[in-house]
Please model this.
Amino acid sequence: MGLPSTDWLVRPVAPIDEATASAELAARFGVRGSVRDLGSQQDRNYRVRAEAGEYVLKVANPATGTAELRTQCDAVEHLARALPGVRLPRAVPGTDGDVVQPFLADGTELACRLLDFVPGEPIMDSRYLAPAVVARLGELSGRIAAALADFTAPDPDRLRPWDLRNALEVIEALAPHWPDRDRADRVLSAARTAYAHVEPHAKFLPVQFVHGDITDNNVVCETARDGRRMPVGVIDFGDLGTGWTVAELAVTCTSVLHHHGAGPASVLPAVRAFDAVRPLSDGEAAALWPLIVLRAAVMVVSGQYDVLQDPGNGYASAALDREWAMFEAAVSVPAEVMTAQVREALGRPLPRVAVEPAHRMLPDLPDDLPVLDLSARSDDLHTGRWLEADAEAALASGRPAARTRHGEFRLTRTTIDTTAAPATCALGVDLHLADPLEVRAPWAGTLTRHADGTLDLRGEGPVLWLYGVEGPPASGPVAAGQRLGTVAGRDGRHTLGLGLSTLTDRRPPRFATPDLAAGWLAVSPDPTPLITGRAPVEPSADQDLLDRRDRAFATVQEHYYDEPPRIERGWRHHLVDDQGRGYLDMLNNVTILGHGHPALSDAVHRQWRRLNTNSRFHYRSVVELSERLTALLPTELDTVFLVNSGSEAVDLALRLAWAATERQDTVAVEEAYHGWTYASDAVSTSIADNPNALSSRPGWIHTVAAPNSYRGRHRGAEARRYGSEAAARITELAAQGRPPAAFICEPFYGNAGGIPLPDGYLREVYEATRAVGGLCIADEVQVGYGRLGTHFWGFEQQGVVPDIVTVAKGMGNGHPLGAVITRREIADAYRTQGYFFSSAGGSPVSSVVGLTVLDALRDERLQDNARETGGYLKRRLEELAARHPLIGAVHGSGLYLGVEFVRDRETLEPATEETAAICDRLRELGVIVQPTSDRQCVLKIKPPLCLTRQSADVFVTALDDVLTHGW
Model:
């Protein structure tokens, strides 16, 4: 067992009742107040509330001498001077002026201190930690380490079990006491392997005083506006002592690993933040992950030992599961992989191993070997072909031979309707053959044939792994060029998988998840030269694409997310990024049919080959589209203008109203968005899009209150008053000599988050508008075209007929296409302004797009799906609202829904920052959604109308996960 247990094993302090603690507190510090036991692993801690303030009374374990306690107090004072913004537990002197006081318990004299209570909350649970929180932990750890670098004091003359320099000795001493021998052996094996990785660097690692326990439950946090707990202070200096500086970071990182959704890569924000404050040497970077394994192993065996020694210690017992979770996460990836991943996170070069075969593996292979493109940008994997099980073989069929790329993120490995990121990065290559070619050893070595038919060849360099070789020889030595067999066949094709690995103690995976791809690729050299005889020239990864966008593309054209995924493919209601990560698209109301619709793609392709010009030429499709649109509307709306966008459509609608009425005053609804052209922007009143929207409107714009029945000035049944008030305002304007030319609004309150207008609202407002000679414009750009499920047009819900209808977005399924539909006399009135022309509006291609979208909406019953799936989704979201108080309301109809988040259901204080953070977390879980409304506290849920119930369930499950476990 190493050193005798009595020399260093620490037994917890026996329980001390609160009455004794209270009496000693008064006697030693002159403080009287309430005392509550806080629990501890080895000491005894008590929360004290007194008139003079709040404190923590710490009764030290006898293993910690008074000199150590004073050193801890000195270190806190040192940090308080160096880091004035960090909250710290400063010691309160006793009645005799000493910060360390005797404490009598059952005749035994212990030592105690009274420390300032550090305000804030620790992260005591295992809820999800956002990257920003993890980074703050790492930054705080780095700041403490940097500030303690010049702190000096006598080092304790005893073996400290939490000093990671002693980790292996502690683990080997405590593991034999653990009754679960399987787990004990796993921990021992992992610890010995980890220590072997540390040992070459150990004597070069900087040593200094370290806190030794900057973990999730030893920091105090302030709750930020977004609801995340951000570390602002450090407590519990009980493990202070000399140690490797990098161990400070290892301890912090280990504490992240038990949190919900955490994996090895979750610690990288902490690593980057620590390094930014206190730079890590290459040796420290190499030692970091093995030290994380050792820290986790020490925690596991120490926790088990403490429970064995003190079965009633609830604090220690409660920690066992999360300690084991840390260990499982720490050993789930080889240290070599994580060390490379750490280097990549720090922007440091990664090791690359080049291979040179002594003999070509497939001598009969053609030299001009084509490469299969399996990336998200592959032209061959359209219309969902990438989801087919045999997609790769299908692409290779018809060719004598073809190979795949090493390091490529394969679209064929992408999964949909799941919150877990798939393993898409190819760590080897596959060779697809029409005939069973002979395979020979590229170098001499020892061959092993495994039970599943896999071969591995070990020589002087990386281990070669072969999948799909049949025939002799058996396991044993082989010479370079020796025949290993032939490529196995299935269904008329022959596929050979090759992988190289510098890891000798395990079979590597064939694919890696994107978050660990750099690490796995560092230990998985490219085997392509073994089959081609030369290293391939692969396309660059375009890692600076976002920077290039910002340099060349006006940044006022913003992108979703601070760190946006690079989306390169869409299919139906899913998106795929360049790393093969699939996302559920709950946002894209533009692609109403779904992404990559085959009929639409084919129709555009045919028409573009045939003709594309402008609408002043005479051709069939522009006539057919105009007729189809008018057939969907009331009879009097019989004339169509075709344009390029919703902004143009609204702009033209307003100009039509001005021409027809010969006046310009216009009434718009607050909190609305209609477009970016001069006229459409004038009627856009949303302060989310323009903070100065209301104060910067032209004088001819007049606004009426947003008819928000949830949070407006009239709520519930009282919301009917919005209509009469708006009507009265219109009448008042006319009386003032400014009768409106038009009233414009969305017939379903889309920009506010999918809130229906109060019953009868448009009837009252339209009547008032027409009574003063104005026209009524229904902006259906977002809410029309069947999205509401129950009605094709939003205005139908209100039982009214507008004078002008605008439509765009879904009308072209992403193609720039919009329309204005009105009465003939209103359209003809525009001639007083000249003629109207749009170069691409109504072009042959655009017209064919519009016709194909209408066909698909009808043939695929997408309006019915919006009603049925949307209704199902809304019911499920309402079930979430019953369990999660952050959800104030679920708005909407069909597949135009909104989930409104509030901090208080009575005051309806908007949870704006929380909503943005929730969207970020949902993106991590594979769901794309964004905030809307002037308060930006509503999830706008406007997916393609092909959304399935299965996908709706995935979204609800992901949202439930976020609301339950944090964001």
